[in-house]
Amino acid sequence: MSFIKFSKIGAFHNAVKYARKHAKLFNGPVSFTGSVKIHGTNAGIVVLPDGKCLAQSRNRTLSLEDDNCGFARWALQDEVCQVMREFAEAVWKKDGERPVVIYGEWCGPGIQRGVAVNELPEKQFVMFAAGAQDDEGERLYIDDAPLLEMISPKLGLRSILEGPRWTVECDLLDAASSSFAANQINEFTEEVSKKCPWGSLHGIEGVGEGIVWRPTSPKFYQDSDLFFKSKCEDKLSGLHAKKAKTSAPASPDVLAFVEEQVHQER
Prior knowledge:
The protein is of the alpha+beta class. The protein has helices at about 10-20, 70-75, 80-95, 175-195, 195-200, 250-265, and strands spanning about 30-35, 40-45, 55, 60, 100-105, 125-135, 140, 155-160, 165-170, 210-215, 230.
């Protein structure tokens, strides 16, 4: 059985710190694209070379007997598995047969509380990334554009690419550029905190959780050390959403601290 874990995602200053520890890899600005961070539970569907589908949570393989918020019961339906197999078969034609995984957020009623997506009429799996195992068993991220072709509202299968996108460009080795990008990221995240874009797509008003950022520059597309998130700090406990606060991805003081830590570790 194959479990292909999704990357752990830190904050913006973690990406800055990584870049400055590996400065030789960077010779100019890096482009990042942000997508809505949906407040649900991380999930994935793995398709093995023999066509078998497996459901997983962030940390383990799921089964009908050992489920997580009903995700395995939904994911292992024949109709859902067939959509996943078709995606995997397209990958195999290009890269050879190997385990393929489609990552997403399982969200909707009963999974979280206090945010717009909790008011969805039914649970849905919002795909946000795809990956495959290489010959050494390591995860590789692959082109996720075809996820748009897999959308099936009837099955509860959606793609984060249906929602809005944000872009920033940043020279991670330059403090002024990093600080400017951090301010942009803060502004975008504040907008999401006030009105969840994913909820708005479904006619639901309410607050959002934040934004997930990934590098889109071809050189760094698969480098999960450069993935980061900007979140609305208020956890919104209770049924009534409070005013969300935006977490600063990286203030100038934080960036100065990062520079000091990187210098000490060299």
